[in-house]
Fold this sequence. Notes:
The chain is of the alpha+beta class. It contains 15 helices and 9 strands. The two termini are 30 Å apart. Keywords: FAD, Flavoprotein, Oxidoreductase.
Amino acid sequence: xxxxxxxxxxxxxxxxxxxxxxxxxxxxxxxxxxxxxxxxxxxxxxxxxxxxxxxxxxxxxxxxxxxxxxxxxxxxxxxxxxxxxxxxxxxxxxxxxxxxxxxxxxxxxxxxxxxxxxxxxxxxxxxxxxxxxxxxxxxxxxxxxxxxxxxxxxxxxxxxxxxxxxxxxxxxxxxxxxxxxxxxxxxxxxxxxxxxxxxxxxxxxxxxxxxxxxxxxxxxxxxxxxxxxxxxxxxxxxxxxxxxxxxxxxxxxxxxxxxxxxxxxxxxxxxxxxxxxxxxxxxxxxxxxxxxxxxxxxxxxxxxxxxxxxxxxxxxxxxxxxxxxxxxxxxxxxxxxxxxxxxxxxxxxxxxxxxxxxxxxxxxxxxxxxxxxxxxxxxxxxxxxxxxxxxxxxxxxxx
Length: 399
């Protein structure tokens, strides 16, 4: 494996950093998240036009750039530095791979080009606060573990009289669910005896669809509650007759591995920027007639943070080329971000403890991401289980 970045990758990162440096400072971030969309629509279109950001990992035949998920991860390291509020995660990282893997030729041809161009945004809706389980990040994504098991609760799908499908139920904590033009809804069908989870497409403005934005700790990750009442939907993929849902679960798990690598890179970018801002502050803040950064205790703390961030960056880069290591890389990156953001607040002193200070943007991102995609100890435990570290000698012999 050649881990060196190409000239094209370096240029993409440089251009993206330049654009975000001009358009996505802390004040702009705070203003964007308070809009109805939860992000700067004009900036999103600029990133789509100049860099093709929404379609980086989409095949060229569907209007995308045709790069690998590794390129998307490198781009997300830059968006993480700026804490960019955008539909990138929900659309390009979660929805696009599922449509690519499960959609029919007609569905891919109809949906992927506008998604790659940035004109169409999408969101993945799974029942309950179970996104990490649905993506097989913190446990196996068997249907009964996260989607209601076919019983009451979650989202249910029933064949409609018109030959289509009707959805009933609700899903909370849907990333960008309040503004997405297209929803990918995980729903149960087949009743309790033959319960299986399939994915359905729900368009913006569909009858019976109600969406409300939820209050969140991290405003840069807008979330919504989705309610479905006899809502018409289109099955993602071929006819569901005889389907077991195993293909959907496998696609969700594959998407989860790539998403973990991308999220790890994003968290590393945020941690690196939080550290850089802290280093800049301690160089300027004086106490007893000298910069506080010259004190040995402060130097030691910053050195520890640097090691955390660099170790997480190495893990994230490795996972970008081998997404099978995404879970471990994400655990390392989330831990590094949490520690770095917490220390940033401490090292900023009294001003750092004010809720409005920019350091809290990174602290909120660290806490919210661990709630959505973690926690760290479960990410590591599941990765260790899949690697066979907890297998007994007898079980190894049997295998």
